[in-house]
Amino acid sequence: MTSRPAVPAALTRDLVARALAEDLGNGDVTTQALLSSAVPARSTIVAEQPDGLVVAGLTVALEVFAQVDPTLECMASLADGDSATRGTVILIITGDGRSMLKAERVALNFLQRLSGIATLTAKFCEAVKGHRVKIVDTRKTTPDLRPLEKWAVRLGGGINHRQSLSDGILIKDNHLALADGDVARACRLARERAPHGLRSDQGTDSDRSLWRSHAG
Fold first, then answer.
1. Extents of the domains making up the chain
2. Three-point CA angle 71, 74, 76, nearest 5°
3. Where are the beta strands (DSSP E) in the chain?
4. Is 140 a catalytic residue?
5. With respect to CATH, is domain 9-127 assigned 3.30.70.120?
6. What is the rounded (10 degree) CA torsion for 47, 129, 173, 164?
7. Residues 118-128 pLDDT 10s
8. C-alpha triplet 180, 186, 177: angle, nearest 5°
9. Is residue 78 a contact partner of residue 90, using CB atoms and an 8 Å limit?
């Protein structure tokens, strides 16, 4: 069985802390005004995708609830990378309802966005199944969320391309627009000036323009 990719715990903790600081601000004034004492409650997160949902971000959602209130009890029925159908219970949370109100939106934002990425990636991968094609991602990611979004791509069966501009040379139309449109010259300069450790994924064909790091 192929092991599933995991997102670094330290990164998750930091992203969740910043997301909560953004959402809570100086506190949940509505909850504080309406509920002055603890309210025992039970919340359930249920899949609504008709079919083919790939769960991603559950680990992050659990971290959200833990940071808001460590006394909340969270019982996950699935794991990141699992498939689910409409009506599947993904997570049950019990404890102080006030804490759930503070955590729910951030937890759902992470879970919904990352599951959406993983699910769509899985659909693309299924569409090209049997062909000599690989589905790779891009750098068109949400600022600060690139590690999580690229993690979701891998959970959906896709492959990460460049994590940053330093990972490889990729000559695009905008580079050529600033380099007088000379493709051959651009490729030659890229080969001559490529940092040590970068290699060409495309062999020696002079019209190829992609280099990537061995570690990438």
1. 9-127, 167-213
2. 165
3. 40-46, 53-54, 73-76, 83-84, 89-96, 198-200, 211-213
4. yes
5. no
6. 60
7. 999 999 999 99
8. 30
9. yes
